[in-house]
Each structure stands twice: as C-alpha cells, then as structure tokens.
C-alpha cells in the first residue's frame, strides 16, 4: 500500500521528505495559535463587549434610553433596539459551536440576565438579545469588536509561506538532481551498447563521486572490450593459417573416407571460429536507424535456405523500432537457424503491445525443458553436445541473440509453443 503512494522518482521522494514536515509544522502552529492566541483575543473582546452591554442595560433601567443609544452608536460601535413585550425562551449556556460562541456564553452569563445571539451573518454584525424585564434589548455589535481577522491573516501568511517554500525546495532539489538525471541517461545509453561521453563531475560531492566512478568504469569496460576484440582477432588470424594449410593437405589426400572425416572436422573448427568472432562483434559500432521489423523479417525469410522447413509470417500490424539493422538481422537469423535444426514448421508472429514490439518465433521441434530456459543463453552451453556437434552448433547462437536484443533495450523470453515445440519471444522498445 505504502509503495503505491510513495513516488517512484527521487525528486518526488525528496519533496515529500522536505514538505511533509513543513505541513505538519504549519498545522501544529496553526492549531496552537487558534487554540491559544485567538482564544485569548476572543475572550478579551467578548468581555469588553459584555461590559459595554452591562453599561447600556444600566442606563436603560435608569430610563436613560436616549443616552444609551447615543453611547452605543458613538463609543461602542453598537446599534440598539428595544423590542417591547417580548420574552426570550432561554439562554445559550450549553451551546458549543466554536471559540467565539463559547466566549460569548461565558461573558454574557456574567450579566445575570437571559440572553441570546445570532452568529449567522458576521459580515452584518453579531445580534445579541438581552432580556430587560418585560422587553428585549436587541444589540447589533460590529464584528470587529468580537472577531479578530488577524488570526486568519496569520494563517494565510503561513500557507503562502509554505507554498513559496515548497516551490523553492522543488527548484533547488531539481537543480541538485540534474547531474544525477544526466548520469542515468548516459548510463542507459552506454548499457545499450552505444558510445556515451564522459559525465561532467558537477553537483553535490556524492554525485561527483558517482560520476567519477562511472567514468572510470566506462573506461575500463571499453578497454576490456577492445582487448577482447584484439585478442580474439589475433587468435582467429593465428588459427586460420594452419586451418588453411590443413584444408590444402586434405585436398591432396587420396583416401576419400579419411578425407571426408577430416573435412568435417576442419569445417566445424572454421564454423566455431566464425561464431566466436561474431560473438565479439556484437559490441561493434553501428549507426542507429529506424527499422521496420516487418520488412527486416521478410527479407530474412526470403533469403534463408529453408531445406524443407515450412516457414510462415503472420503480421498483425506494422511495427518499427530504432536500432542497428545488421545486428538485429544477425539475431533473427540465429533464431531461425536454431529452429531449423530441430523443427519442420516455423511460424513468426509480429505485433505490438502497450510498450514493446513483439516478434514470436514458434516451432514444432523438440523444445527445451523449462529448467534449461536460462541455461541455453549461456556461452557454449548445449543440451546434447554430440547432437549439436553433428548439427554444427557452437553454443553461442542464442547468447549472441540475447546480447544484441538487450543492447537495444529489449529482452528474449522462452516458453512452450502452441505448435508443440519452443516459443522464443523477442521484445523490443517501440
């Protein structure tokens, strides 16, 4: 539940860490102010009004009604009216509808007379009713005498300051996290096999430290890949020379049986050597371009040697992605070649989902045990070494395929095919 509420981005979480305490402080401060300061202010105001009303009542009881009206208008900010022959039903001693109501109850009760009041329209003033013998004294008190707006001004300033502080925090945090965003983008680019520039070491100490570590890691990886390529190229060159001599010597042999067996072995060694070189070349640079997968798969199917294999394509819609055409073609060729070795029927389905291009390769072959799904992507892994030797498999085909697909930001998944064999599903970003 909490994971769903918490933002996934670092800046979102940082804002929560900063802003939530601010909200709590503002709420607590407002509550304390409302319950103490404003309560005290309201008490003093209502007691002052009650004292003035007491003066007016005494003047009216002394038959000085005109004097009471003049004093109320000029000095007390009140308007009074006498309602003759009217009785109040009861006083509002028990009402508890807020601080102002409570303070009025407490202050007016000191008059020792029945009272009532109306707080429904504060803009027009507060109506207070006092029972004077057989009459009711109606008093319209200006809201400023009972109601302090400074409390609400204070609360508004608190809210305004919180909003300003929030945007300042967001601005400062976004600036601090900007180098981290660049680091994430460059790391993703480099992870997809593209050349990425060095990250500028800017920002906080921890971010600069991370950027330096990434730059060093990137340099080491590039150096390792270069050394691996150069080493394998050298080994390939050194091995091809004796293989060429062996082929020449084999061609001069007169024993056809021995000649045929040796040719198989030499051809197998050459094929394995080509596979090793191809494995290294998955990291070679190639320009990124927009690729229509339908056309690429169609070209592969047209040129591939079927050798009695039934190969069909089902296109649900046209799909395209950005990538390296030669590498993707190599990956799809590896998948089809692998299926051809063990199947008589291959079905390719092309479609898209919400975020991926999907290419399904279904065959009616022997399939692969579920517990071996991950193992087949390991370099040089074969289910049956003797069988794979006869079929010319080096154990690198699917390894190369997954490396290529993952370098494009996608993935390869295995499952059972509806044709009875293996389903290999390639996912590529749209």
Write a structural description.
The protein is α+β, with helices and mostly antiparallel strands and 430 residues long. The chain folds into four domains: 66 residues, no CATH class; 112 residues, Beta-Lactamase (2-Layer Sandwich), CATH 3.30.450; 94 residues, Helix Hairpins; 144 residues, Histidine kinase-like ATPase, C-terminal domain (Heat Shock Protein 90). It is 55% helix and 16% strand. The protein is built from twelve helices and eleven strands. The strands form three sheets. The protein has a five-stranded mixed sheet with strand order 6-8-9-11-10, with helices on one face. The chain has a four-stranded antiparallel sheet with strand order 1-4-3-2. It has a two-stranded antiparallel ribbon with strand order 5-7. A hairpin with a 2-residue loop joins strand 3 and strand 4. Helix 6 runs parallel beside helix 7. The radius of gyration is 44 Å and the shape is rod-shaped.
- Could you give the count of β-strands? 11
The CATH homology group name of the largest domain: Histidine kinase-like ATPase, C-terminal domain
CATH topology label of the largest domain: Heat Shock Protein 90
Q: In what range is the share of β-strand residues?
A: 15-25%
Q: Low-confidence parts lasting 5 or more residues at pLDDT below 50?
A: none
- Please give the order of strands in the largest beta sheet: 6-8-9-11-10
Secondary-structure element order, as H and E?
HHHHEHEEEHHHEHEEHEEHHEE
Describe the main β-sheet briefly: 5 strands, mixed
CATH class of the largest domain: Alpha Beta
Portion in helices: 40-55%
Instruction: Write down the overall mean pLDDT.
Output: 77
The dominant shape is rod-shaped
Question: How many domains, as an integer?
Answer: 4
Class derived from helix and strand content? alpha+beta
